[in-house]
Design brief:
The complex is a heterodimer of chains A (164) and B (517).
Chain A (H helix, E strand, L loop, with lengths): L2 E8 L6 H10 L12 E10 L2 E10 L10 H4 L4 E7 L9 H11 L5 E6 L6 H10 L6 E2 L8 H15 L1
Parallel strand pairs in A: 1-3, 1-4, 4-5, 5-6
Antiparallel strand pairs in A: 2-3
Chain B lengths: L1 H12 E7 L4 E4 L22 H4 L6 E11 L2 E12 L4 E8 L1 H64 L5 H31 L8 E4 H18 L3 E6 L6 E4 L1 H17 L5 E7 L7 E10 L30 H12 L3 E7 L3 E12 L3 H9 L5 H5 L2 E6 L3 H12 L4 E6 L2 H10 L4 E5 L7 H9 L4 H4 L3 E5 L4 H10 L3 E4 L4 H17 L6
Parallel strand pairs in B: 7-9, 13-14, 13-15, 15-16, 16-17
Antiparallel strand pairs in B: 1-2, 1-5, 3-4, 4-5, 6-8, 8-12, 9-10, 10-12, 11-12
The chains are: A alpha/beta (164), B alpha/beta (517).
The structure holds guanosine-5'-triphosphate (GTP) and magnesium ion (MG).
Keywords (chain B): Kinase, Phosphoprotein, Transferase, Two-component regulatory system
InterPro entries (chain B): CheY-like_superfamily (IPR011006), HATPase_C_sf (IPR036890), HATPase_dom (IPR003594), His_kinase_dom (IPR005467), HisK_dim/P_dom (IPR003661), HisK_dim/P_sf (IPR036097), Sig_transdc_His_kin-like_C (IPR004358), Sig_transdc_resp-reg_receiver (IPR001789)
Pfam families (chain B): HATPase_c (PF02518), HisKA (PF00512), Response_reg (PF00072)
Chain lengths: 164, 517
């Protein structure tokens, strides 16, 4: 059995967590928004520099209040992916605050910040906005076009293996 | 009976599985999911990878609510309880089927999330519009100031040129240049007005004036224009229209000139009717209805809603020139006057523009005073924290400062043309600080400051004053200190320095109750 690692997708609702996961695992995309309730889990095996790892990805119901996350959903996570919607500022204006909460409760779990739906925004305006709020995402992605989706999950996998 | 029911209920809704810590099935009642003993649970669903984490958790029992599990083409929502027996290395899992319950929860959350997201998106769009509008204003203000200066010299020199003994042909040509540049000037003034209105820097000043006289002047001027185009111009004055009213004459005139000019511009044949009426005159405040009716080209139904926005130039109307700014100004001025502008139009038949505004009726000075004290200022200056007076004679410099102040809604700026004007305004209004140009006609900045410092009203005599000067000679700085100025800034003004200095001085002034020294 290869190593398996739990990854949790966090963020406001409607930011594209399920879409990113579906793009990564099944390489499909739908414009229809189907709300995730509770948790939906998918797995995918990736090999990083010849090393195999099974990512168990928990796609958790979105919320803007991270203190409301059920601890059992987050327990045992090797990494968090914090997704925001680049086309809706409300989904990242409270990022700092939510990150603080995570680092307090899960000090040893690394967080990757992803700005999704970049296909909908003007790159320059987004950069300016993010800069003015001092937000530095690890990746800007689009589940719709597939931009950076594989890269971001592989980056997470590589880091998880390194921390092992 | 109960036992039977319990059995049935449990059979349909719960499944109990026992596995080892590597998720290999030791026992399962297979009530819902059928999982052969010896198989790995992780091969049934990735949720069960969780089992390997349980050993590291401090508690023996854990609850996972609303876990989606697909099995044999069916989607379940389970609440799952796990219990670990550390000694024997066994894990018990209780799966409780809440599929029906969670399906109804899903419906509610779907509706809620969708509506919140729609709202977010609308808000986002609105923010974008605001940003664009701000940008447009600054752009307008900049461009119009830049154009105005050279334009003024063009208009000025054309006048000089006219008097240099030109022959007939040359005079005709100069007259064309003159009328074009005057047109251009009025467009630039419109632009400036718009940016001022939108930045909240245009003041409405209600005063008593003779309405009949204003209307007579307007009618006379437009009758001549209409005659030139061979269209009839009719004027109807309502019977009970009062002679004296209290309103902003300048802005009312601007609104009416725009409406009448448009009517003439867009009418090729037929007539224009200008009527002014009021339902009654026996009240302190009455609505007055100004109506301009033409038989011009009219407006498409779909365009009627947008003609008041700036930069809207209906395609067809483009034929007749104009920037489409006039109506935008009309709309904004009418809002500042708390009036209402409406349009009815049939394409190809003509249009009716109707402006309704409440005016004070003034037979005596008292009513006028009352209204005057309610004189409304445009949006931002009303909310400004600090009121600053600028003494400055050069228009370009006045505009430059206005532009800088437009970006600081906490400050409002009034302008005085010279030292004498500064003193006059100080007697009428309360200011928090004065910016004083040193060289001005009639009374310069030094003289004005000296008089302010000797003023008998303590609030006035202690007001902070900052000198603004293009020169930076030691003598000037020395003299400005001597007459009692509190700061000295050199032009071109550095915006940050200006606001820092003002903030500091105003704070000190307020703290001391009456003054700085
Ligand atoms: N244009 C565009 N739309 C996207 C993208 N990603 C997701 N969407 C759309 O955004 C909506 C929400 O996507 P989901 O993936 O369901 O969002 P979620 O974060 O899982 O939402 P919750 O499950 O409610 O927390 C859907 O209509 C998607 O089609 C993207 O990259 N570009
Ligand atoms: Mg989802």
């Amino acid at each position: 059995m290869s190593v398996s690692k739990k990854i949790v997708l966090l963020g406001h609702f409607g930011v594209g967590k399920s879409s990113l996961l579906r793009r990564f695992v099944e390489d499909t995309f739908s414009e229809n928004y189907i709300v995730t309730i509770g948790v939906h889990i998918m797995k995918k095996e990736v090999s990083i520099a010849g090393e195999q790892v099974t990512l168990i990805i928990w796609d958790v119901e979105g919320t803007d209040d991270f203190t409301k996350y059920r601890p059992s959903y987050l327990m045992g996570a090797a990494s968090f992916i914090y997704v925001f919607d680049a086309s809706r500022e409300v989904t990242y204006s409270d990022l700092k605050y939510n990150l603080e909460h995570l680092s307090e409760k899960y000090p040893h779990v690394p967080v990757h910040i992803i700005g999704n739906k970049v296909d909908l925004v003007d790159a320059n305006i987004l950069q300016e906005n993010l800069l003015s709020q001092n937000i530095k995402p690890d990746y800007l992605s689009s589940a719709k076009t597939g931009e950076n989706v594989e890269q971001l999950f592989e980056n997470v996998a590589a880091q998880v293996l390194k921390n092992d | 009976m109960i036992e039977e029911l319990r059995k049935d209920f449990v059979k349909n809704t719960t499944q109990i599985i026992v596995s080892d810590t590597e998720s290999r099935v030791l026992q399962s009642d297979n009530n819902i999911l059928s999982i052969p003993t010896g198989n790995y649970l992780t091969s049934v669903h990735p949720f069960f990878y969780t089992i390997s984490n349980l050993l590291e958790e401090p508690l023996d029992e854990n609850y996972f609510y609303c876990v989606q599990i697909e099995n044999l083409g069916k989607n379940y929502f389970f609440d799952i309880k796990t219990k670990i027996y550390r000694k024997s290395g066994q894990v018990a899992l209780f799966l409780i089927d809440f599929t029906e319950h969670y399906k109804s929860v899903h419906k509610i959350k779907q509706a809620r999330n969708e509506s919140i997201i729609d709202f977010n998106i609308a808000q986002e769009l609105n923010n974008e519009l605001q940003v664009q509008r701000g940008f447009k204003n600054k752009f307008l203000a900049n461009v119009s100031h830049e154009i105005r200066t050279p334009l003024n010299s063009i208009v000025g020199f054309i006048q000089v040129l006219q008097n240099t003994g030109l022959n007939r042909e040359q005079l005709d040509l100069v007259n064309i240049v003159k009328s074009s540049s005057e047109n251009l000037k009025s467009i630039v003034n419109d632009l400036l007005d718009i940016s001022k209105i939108e930045a909240g820097r245009l003041e409405i000043k209600n005063k008593r004036f003779n309405l009949h006289l204003l209307l007579d002047e307007l009618v006379k001027a437009h009758q001549i224009q209409a005659e030139e185009k061979r269209i009839t111009f009719q004027f109807e004055r309502g019977e009970s229209l009062p002679r004296f009213i209290v309103l902003d004459r300048l802005r009312l005139n601007q609104v009416l000139v725009n409406l009448l000019d448009n009517a003439i511009k867009y009418t090729q044949v037929g007539n224009i009717t200008f009527s002014v009426t009021t339902p009654s005159k026996n009240r302190r405040k009455i609505p007055i209805v100004f109506e301009v009716k033409d038989t011009g080209i009219g407006i498409d139904a779909e365009n009627v809603t947008t003609i008041f926005e700036s930069f809207t130039q209906l395609e067809k109307r483009g034929l007749f020139g104009g920037t489409g700014l006039g109506l935008s100004i009309v709309k904004q001025l009418s809002e500042l006057m708390e009036g209402k502008i409406e349009v009815e139009s049939v394409k190809g038949k003509g249009s009716i523009f109707r402006f309704t505004v409440e005016a004070g009726v003034s037979h005596d000075q008292k009513a006028e005073k009352k209204l005057r004290s309610r004189t409304s200022k445009s949006k931002e200056s009303k909310n400004s924290k600090y009121r600053v007076l600028l003494g400055e004679d050069i228009e370009v410099n006045q505009l430059l400062l206005m532009r800088i102040f437009a970006d600081h809604p906490d400050y409002s700026l009034d302008i005085a043309k010279n030292g004498e004007h500064v003193l006059k305004l100080l007697d009428h209004y309360k200011y928090d600080l004065i910016l004083m140009d040193l060289t001005m006609p009639i009374m310069d900045g030094f003289d004005a400051t000296a008089r302010i410092r000797n003023h008998k009203n303590k609030h006035i005599s202690k007001i902070p004053i900052i000198a603004l000067s293009a020169r930076c000679s030691d003598e000037d700085i020395e003299e400005s200190k001597e007459v009692g100025m509190n700061g000295y800034l050199i032009k071109p003004i550095d915006e940050r320095e200006l606001f820092q200095t003002m903030e500091k001085l105003i704070q000190r002034y307020k703290r001391k109750g009456q003054g700085v020294s």
